[in-house]
Specification:
With 358 residues, this protein is an alpha+beta fold. The chain is built from 8 helices and 11 strands. The chain has helices at residues 2-21, 26-62, 68-96, 117-137, 167-171, 258-285, 324-328, 333-357, and strands at residues 107-113, 141-149, 155-163, 176-182, 193-203, 217-222, 238-243, 248-252, 301-306, 311-314, 319-321. Strands 2-3-1-5-4-9-10-11 form an 8-stranded mixed β-sheet. A 3-stranded antiparallel β-sheet has the order 6-7-8, with helices on one face.
Length: 358
């Protein structure tokens, strides 16, 4: 670990020197400053860790002193410094873990009604509101890209973008099947129904990251319409893209022009194709462990929302909240924070295995 840290410190010093020599080349300055900022927390943490280890070693040496009072002071110092050293070492290891390059990106979320008919559509709308409230808490912005309403306040499907720093790093844990157990408003005998909604979370992708040849896309244009056939456009502004190699279909009709709808649809298609490639790479890299999120496990139930018991349970970490209204109001920290910690712990364990094997 210390060898890796030394390399990072050397690079940090080199970047500092290069920044001083960059002059008025603002693009170069921005690139160097960005890379230097990414290393800064590691360097400062490493410096504190080294100082702590140095003080610990001095205290260990003093334990063999003939002066009893000095030995007692040394023992007290060791008792104080050892937990600090362990904490700093853990933080350093965490900082040295490879970051998912998508973590700081905006995300495209797709919420779709599953089994359960109208009730599933209503719960899809509830989840959309939940993510809206969570985004507000994080100071993120939400922009609806496409929606298909059921006509009774629900959604067959709604696709939206969440814009904000670190959006993917937190929302990636929401990908999967969400199950709801409650009494529908239309249920006259008070029976509890079970419905499901699927959520997909895709990192926004730049044009340069994934090339889609025009020959791979079939484009259909048609007239867009609101819920129940309302607001029918006279012109054919809605766009449906079919990616021929994969069969993926994306439709957008919420924008006023055909060009805007096409750009939206291309953005969603690009993100889906990138996600497929990322999953393939992840499965190849992580054969030794079962990934919690971001793999092909979306068919698995990840969370249950039980209204009669006011309980929300995340089955991946076996954590429950008994304040369902707060969760539905966007208080998702109890789950997302724990999932993030568990994921980091697993990656730290894997990094330890890799170091031992190396």
């Amino acid at each position: 670990m210390l060898e890796k840290i030394t390399g990072i410190e050397n690079r940090y010093e080199e970047l500092t020197r290069m920044l001083g020599e960059a002059g008025d080349d603002y693009q170069r300055v921005a690139e160097l400053a960005k890379e230097r900022a990414e290393l800064e927390s590691i360097v400062s943490n490493a410096q504190e860790y080294r100082r702590t280890i140095e003080r610990l070693n001095q205290a260990y040496d003093l334990q063999s002193s003939e002066d009893e009072e000095m030995r007692e002071l040394a023992s007290a110092e060791i008792a104080d410094l050892e937990p600090v050293a362990r904490r700093l070492e853990k933080e350093l290891k965490s900082l040295l873990l490879p970051k998912d390059p998508r973590d700081d990106r905006n995300v495209i979320m797709e919420v779709r009604a599953g089994t359960g008919g109208d009730e599933a559509g209503l719960f899809a709308a509830d989840l959309f509101r939940m993510y809206n409230r969570y985004a507000e808490r994080q100071n993120w912005k939400i922009e609806v890209l496409s929606q298909n309403e059921t006509g009774i306040g629900g959604f067959k499907e709604i696709i939206f973008m969440v814009k904000g720093k670190g959006a993917y790093s937190k929302l990636k844990y929401e990908s999967g099947v969400h199950r709801v157990q409650r009494v529908p408003m239309t249920e006259s005998q008070g029976r509890i129904h079970t419905s499901t909604v699927t959520v997909a979370v895709l990192a926004e992708v730049e044009d340069v990251e994934i090339d889609i040849p025009e020959s791979d896309i079939h484009i259909d244009v048609y007239r867009s319409a609101g819920a129940g056939g309302q607001n029918v456009q006279k012109n054919s502004t809605a766009v449906r893209l079919t990616h021929i190699p994969t069969g993926i279909v994306v439709a957008c009709q919420d924008e006023r022009s055909q060009l805007q709808n096409k750009l939206r649809a291309m953005s969603i298609l690009r993100a889906r194709l990138y996600d497929i490639e990322a999953e393939k790479r992840q499965q190849e890299l992580e054969k030794t462990r079962r990934s919690q999120v971001g793999t092909g496990e979306r068919a698995e139930k990840i969370r249950t929302y039980n209204y009669p018991q006011s309980r929300v349970t995340d089955h991946r970490i076996n954590v429950s909240s008994y304040n369902l209204p707060a969760v539905m109001d966007g208080d998702l920290g109890i789950f997302i924070d724990e999932l993030s910690l568990r994921d980091e712990s697993e990656r730290l364990a894997m990094a330890g295995v890799a170091e031992d094997e190396g």
